[in-house]
């Protein structure tokens, strides 16, 4: 969800600052949970089964723990399916000693990771321009989606298995029980459930907070996991709504698919060791697609071999499992996208063609349209309320600037009580929720928030009257307040507006590229992530429940967390039609068929109105129906990813341990960021440095998955001042599954006044029936 980033930053700040403030901390006795990653099981692991491997790992631990402390030698997690390793409570010195072990690839702290919808799927179908009836019947129920999140509420009708066939025989997972979760909680839709407990030793002698993870049961106590699982593969539920709003048939992207949930998170976040264990288990259980709406804060990203999601996903790809991840909510600034390893499908968030309008009727008869989700009892027939600007209601000794921002403690309750207060947002440290609580706590009857930021993401205010407007409308309201002695207003309950235009739009919060390496264009793809209605737990967000109403079984949430399962569901849909396709072929099909136009027929834009680039939206808004028949695909192999690690700078012996192949050799010329762009067969292109007179050339290999005897011609969208050439400019395929290789060269045009920085464009291959678009970004130096 949105707005979890500040919590994680505070936790991390606490983690770094407290040891500095403590008096002479003893690092020899302070123990924290660490993950010890050892690469593929075949890369020199213990072998001989789980018991032998665990005994081997315990022996490794014993070798670095003092003799008088051998009683604390224990594994808190064991990784032994897709990759080898373990988690354990270690001192800093013990972790350093293990990192030097010949069989160990990396050792890193068990960090806390952050938790990063009805109409959305219908909107995607309309945008595709195709009819789903015939294509939808091709979907089978044999695809399994693994959801790593906060668990599941199994009683939700979104997980009803009516009409579903028997569970696929290849499923090897379990339905773990707990005090509030039985084996009967699983069915033919929700076929598996696991949970992971927090390591009790991880911080027993530490000054730092414990990593937060789920305990006791697969049951969701947050609502986040239930929401994402039902978005990806929920059964169709008629007349779902959020207290009357967004009413319609709620369904997942792959309603015929199965769901397996892995509860590795709680409200406070996720233990990275538990997330890594969940990936390992999901691969062994037999899932086809993994959806992870989790990630690090963009301010604290680590390298790829110390990133638990990246590590697990690389080995998942080796086993034929596609991992889809949220790109994060730290936008709209550049360099904020997370989960940007090339073997991940990284998802940005967009709006759909629905808006939640909360109208403000002023005492002078003017009507101002705002945005929010509120269920207040104010109405035009109930009369008007006095209207006051926060700066005019400042408490004694409170700065006017703080009062105008609804800063905690800044408002005089006697001047605010019974009135609608107007506040601005010049202080980004005070969130919308805090402003709402300040106004409500001061006795206000409503809040008008003037703020252009996040206006595309309606705030859920429950029974409190709230509406958010932009600066232009806000100026109109303030002018009215200053024009009369007794200004009044009323905030009307929210109405949902369908067929809203323009849509989609890149969400303001959606994290932007470039990613960890500028040689891979990230994010990959965009999907609905604003105001998404999906299943939740009955007790979630009780503060948002209107007075006298029972908690809703469905909730409206926003974030790249909501966009991620849309893509996971679409990937499962494509997998059901093409069971033999590799994870990267499915990703390629989704990317090359994505749309870059909105429902006005104009190029997609960001929330600011500026044209969206590849760093905002990746290849564009996904179009699942078009992805069923992409024409050409780009298969990025595990060998490509191992070469990427070489190009990125990892030593050959490290990459061998990761791969499990003792004969693997890094390519000549590694490391080199330029070789990444050319040597990884990716369905997009990113050139990290381009200088005039020094052209950059990138190679790609396409596979024909369309008709026989097909000929594709290239068309180039070149940005001003950049020369782009494709050679050859025609690809001829005599049959299906044949390949063709081509080159794309980039240069700064002679005499051109091209601006420095990133320029964006695309190469599109077409045979008359298919359009295969590969976006590119080039950084002109």
TrEMBL record:
Domain Peptidase S8/S53 positions: 142-598
Signal peptide bounds: 1-23
GO aspect biological process, one term: proteolysis
Region (Disordered): 200-226
Any coiled-coil regions, as ranges: none
Comp. bias (Polar residues): 200-209
Inhibitor I9 domain: residues covered: 33-116
GO molecular function: serine-type endopeptidase activity
GO cellular component, one term: extracellular region
UniProt keywords, alphabetically: Hydrolase, Protease, Serine protease, Signal
Pfam families in UniProt: fn3_6 (PF17766), Inhibitor_I9 (PF05922), Peptidase_S8 (PF00082)
Residue positions of the active site: 149 (charge relay system), 224 (charge relay system), 561 (charge relay system)
Limits of the Subtilisin-like protease fibronectin type-III domain: 680-778
InterPro entries: Peptidase_S8/S53_dom, Peptidase_S8/S53_dom_sf, Peptidase_S8_Ser-AS, Peptidase_S8_subtilisin-rel, Peptidases_S8_3, S8pro/Inhibitor_I9, S8pro/Inhibitor_I9_sf, SBT
PROSITE patterns, alphabetized: SUBTILASE (PS51892), SUBTILASE_SER (PS00138)
Origin superkingdom: Eukaryota
Similarity comment: Belongs to the peptidase S8 family.
Xref: PANTHER family: PROPROTEIN CONVERTASE SUBTILISIN/KEXIN
Name used for this protein in its record: Subtilisin-like protease
Source organism of the structure: Setaria italica (Foxtail millet)
Gene: LOC101772708
């Amino acid at each position: 969800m949105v707005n979890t980033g500040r919590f994680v930053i505070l936790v991390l700040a606490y983690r770094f600052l407290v040891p500095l403030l403590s008096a002479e901390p003893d690092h020899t006795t302070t123990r924290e949970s660490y993950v010890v990653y050892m690469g593929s099981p075949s890369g020199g692991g213990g072998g001989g089964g789980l018991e032998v491997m665990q005994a081997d790992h315990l022996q490794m631990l014993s070798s670095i723990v003092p003799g008088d402390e051998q009683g604390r030698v224990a594994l808190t997690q064991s990784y032994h399916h897709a990759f080898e390793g373990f988690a354990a409570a270690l001192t800093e010195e013990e972790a350093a000693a293990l990192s030097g072990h010949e069989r160990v690839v990396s050792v890193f702290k068990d960090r806390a990771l952050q938790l990063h919808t009805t109409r959305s799927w219908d909107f995607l179908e309309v945008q595709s321009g195709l009819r789903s009836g015939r294509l939808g019947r091709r979907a089978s129920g044999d695809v399994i989606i693994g959801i790593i999140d906060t668990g599941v509420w199994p009683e939700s009708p979104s997980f009803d298995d009516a009409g579903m066939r028997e569970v696929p025989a290849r499923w090897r997972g379990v339905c773990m029980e707990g005090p509030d979760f039985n084996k009967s909680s699983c069915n033919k839709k929700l076929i598996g459930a696991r949970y992971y407990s927090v390591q009790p030793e991880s911080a027993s002698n530490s000054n730092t907070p414990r990593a937060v993870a789920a305990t006791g049961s697969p049951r969701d106590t947050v609502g986040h996991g239930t929401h994402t699982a039902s978005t990806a593969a929920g059964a169709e539920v008629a007349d779902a709504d959020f207290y009357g709003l967004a009413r319609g048939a709620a369904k997942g992207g792959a309603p015929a698919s199965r769901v397996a949930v892995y509860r590795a998170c709680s409200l406070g976040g996720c233990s990275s060791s538990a997330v890594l264990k969940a990936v390992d288990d999901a691969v062994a259980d037999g899932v086809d697609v993994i959806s992870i709406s989790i990630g690090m804060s963009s301010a604290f990203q680590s390298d790829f071999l110390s990133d638990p999601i990246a590590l697990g996903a690389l080995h998942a790809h080796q086993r034929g499992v596609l991992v889809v991840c949220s790109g994060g909510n730290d936008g709209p600034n550049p360099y904020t996208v997370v989960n940007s390893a090339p073997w991940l499908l990284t998802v940005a968030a967009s709006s759909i063609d629905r808006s939640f309008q909360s109208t403000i009727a002023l005492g002078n008869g003017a009507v101002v349209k705002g945005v929010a989700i509120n269920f207040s009892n104010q109405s035009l027939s109930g009369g008007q309320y006095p209207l006051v600007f926060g700066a005019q209601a400042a408490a004694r000794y409170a700065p006017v600037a703080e009062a105008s921002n609804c800063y905690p403690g800044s408002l005089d309750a006697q001047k605010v009580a019974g009135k609608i207060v107007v506040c601005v947002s010049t202080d980004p440290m005070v969130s919308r929720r805090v402003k709402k609580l300040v106004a409500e706590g001061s006795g206000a009857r409503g809040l008008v928030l003037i703020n252009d930021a996040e206006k595309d993401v309606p705030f859920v205010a429950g029974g409190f009257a709230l509406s958010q407007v932009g600066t232009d409308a806000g100026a109109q309201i303030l002018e009215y307040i200053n024009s009369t002695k007794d200004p009044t207003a009323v905030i009307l309950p929210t109405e949902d507006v369908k067929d809203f235009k323009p849509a989609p739009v890149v969400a303001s919060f959606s994290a932007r590229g470039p990613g960890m390496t500028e040689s891979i264009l990230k994010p990959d793809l965009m999907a609905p992530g604003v105001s998404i209605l999906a299943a939740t737990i009955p007790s979630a967000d009780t503060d948002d429940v209107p007075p006298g109403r029972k908690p809703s079984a469905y909730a409206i949430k926003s974030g790249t967390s909501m966009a991620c399962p849309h893509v996971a569901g679409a990937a499962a849909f494509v997998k059901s039609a093409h069971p033999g396709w590799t994870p990267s072929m499915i990703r390629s099909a989704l990317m090359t068929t994505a749309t870059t136009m909105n429902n006005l027929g104009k190029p997609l834009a960001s929330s600011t109105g500026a044209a969206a680039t590849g760093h905002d939206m990746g290849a564009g808004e996904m179009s699942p129906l078009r992805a069923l028949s992409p024409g050409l695909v780009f298969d990025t192999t595990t060998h490509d990813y191992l070469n990427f690690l070489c190009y990125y700078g990892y030593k050959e012996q490290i990459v061998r341990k990761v791969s499990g192949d003792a004969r693997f050799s890094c390519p000549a010329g590694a490391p080199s960021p330029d070789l990444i762009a050319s040597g990884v067969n990716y369905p997009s292109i990113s050139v990290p440095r381009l200088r005039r007179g020094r052209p950059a050339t990138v190679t790609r290999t396409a596979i024909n998955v369309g008709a026989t005897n097909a000929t594709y011609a290239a068309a180039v969208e070149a940005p001003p001042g950049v020369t782009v050439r494709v050679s050859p400019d025609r690809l001829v395929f005599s049959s299906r599954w044949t390949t063709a290789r081509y080159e794309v060269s980039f240069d700064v045009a002679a005499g051109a006044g091209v601006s420095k920085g990133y320029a964006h464009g695309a190469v599109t291959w077409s045979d008359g029936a298919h359009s295969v678009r590969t976006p590119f970004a080039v950084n002109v130096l």
